């Protein structure tokens, strides 16, 4: 006679759990969406060649389990590791030494995400798109979304080749990466930009430091020698006149 009670208890637990999950799903679905219209990356101050990548891959990774992510109408699951889209090479200019990559995929999200831009298996840059407020629903400020970026490559690595003549690297401005994102959130246009300047490899930094040593430091002993010779000549002339 106790079995119906156990069945009833488990049934109630199931109903409560289902109601709780429904409420969570409902709250996520009712959250306002950030619609990304354009994701643009411009890389400048590097040697543009035919081998410069035609496509870069960008991965979108939710930072919170409650964040919904949708790419071209396909919604990622609650426990998904995210999705990816492509940044296609839009323009290259060998003279101005720059290449631009653009994605116009329809990307929608309800919360903070991390993004990673790859050239095949090499990570080029990473960043986050986050709400500036605690929950994203207070106020009507247009700055409620913010973007942080960080370069993951250095000058001269990967496809970011430097100028050289006869195998000797030339001194030139360091490569820069500009990230530009536009979209719409709750009817308000969103524009986010970030500019990154790449650093040098350790060997390059050391070589540049050595090249920067002034030449007069190595010429000082020569000055001392000439001064000593002048003293010897003066002494000989004075001795001859005595």
Topology (SSEs and partners):
Layout: H1 3-29, E1 34-44, E2 55-62, E3 69-71, E4 74-75, E5 83-93, E6 98-103, E7 107-109, E8 113-119, E9 122-131, E10 145-151, E11 164-165, E12 168-169, E13 176-185, E14 188-197, H2 202-211, H3 216-241
Antiparallel strand pairs: 1-6, 1-7, 1-13, 2-5, 2-8, 3-4, 3-7, 5-6, 8-9, 9-10, 11-12, 13-14
Structure description:
This is Erythronate-4-phosphate dehydrogenase family protein. This protein is α+β, with helices and mostly antiparallel strands and 242 residues long. The chain has a domain at 34-133 and 142-197. It contains 3 helices and 14 strands. The strands form 2 sheets. Strands 1, 2, 3, 4, 5, 6, 7, 8, 9, 10, 13 and 14 form a 12-stranded antiparallel beta sheet that branches. It has a two-stranded antiparallel sheet with strand order 11-12. Strand 11 and strand 12 form a beta hairpin. The chain is elongated and about 50 Å long.
List keywords for this structure.
242 residues, 26% helix, 14 strands, disordered N terminus, 3 helices, alpha+beta, elongated, twelve-stranded antiparallel β-sheet
Quick recap of the structure?
This protein is an alpha+beta fold.
Biggest sheet, open or closed, and with what strands and sense?
A: 12 strands, antiparallel
Strand content: 35-45%
Write down the oligomeric state: single chain
| Global morphology | elongated
Task: Give the radius of gyration.
Answer: 31 Å
Give the N-to-C terminal Cα separation.
Answer: 138 Å
- One letter per element, helices H and strands E, the order comes to HEEEEEEEEEEEEEEHH
> What structural category arises from helix and sheet content?
alpha+beta
Low-confidence stretches: 1-27, 134-143, 202-242
Number of strands: 14
Can you give the helix content as a percent range? 25-40%
Q: How many DSSP helices?
A: 3
Please state the average pLDDT score. Answer: 74
Protein name: Erythronate-4-phosphate dehydrogenase family protein
């Amino acid at each position: 006679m106790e079995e119906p009670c156990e069945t009833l208890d488990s049934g109630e637990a199931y109903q409560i759990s289902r109601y709780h999950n429904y409420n969570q799903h409902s709250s996520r679905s009712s959250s306002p969406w950030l619609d990304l219209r354009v994701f643009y990356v411009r890389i400048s101050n590097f040697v543009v060649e035919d081998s410069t990548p035609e496509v870069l891959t960008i991965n979108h990774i939710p930072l919170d389990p409650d964040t919904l992510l949708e790419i071209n109408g396909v919604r990622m699951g609650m426990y998904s590791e995210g999705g990816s889209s492509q940044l296609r090479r839009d323009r290259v200019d060998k003279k101005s030494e720059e290449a631009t990559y653009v994605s116009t995929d329809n990307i929608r999200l309800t919360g903070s995400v991390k993004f990673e831009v790859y050239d095949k298996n090499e990570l080029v840059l990473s960043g986050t798109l986050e709400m500036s407020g605690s929950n994203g629903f207070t106020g009507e400020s247009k700055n409620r979304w913010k973007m942080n970026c960080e370069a993951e490559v250095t000058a001269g690595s990967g496809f970011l080749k430097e100028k050289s003549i006869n195998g000797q690297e030339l001194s030139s401005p360091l490569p820069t990466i500009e990230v530009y994102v536009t979209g719409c959130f709750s009817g308000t246009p969103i524009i986010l930009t970030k500019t990154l300047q790449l650093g040098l490899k350790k060997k390059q930094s050391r070589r540049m430091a050595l090249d920067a040593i002034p030449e007069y430091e190595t010429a000082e002993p020569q000055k001392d020698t000439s001064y000593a010779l002048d003293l010897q000549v003066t002494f000989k002339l004075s001795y001859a006149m005595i």
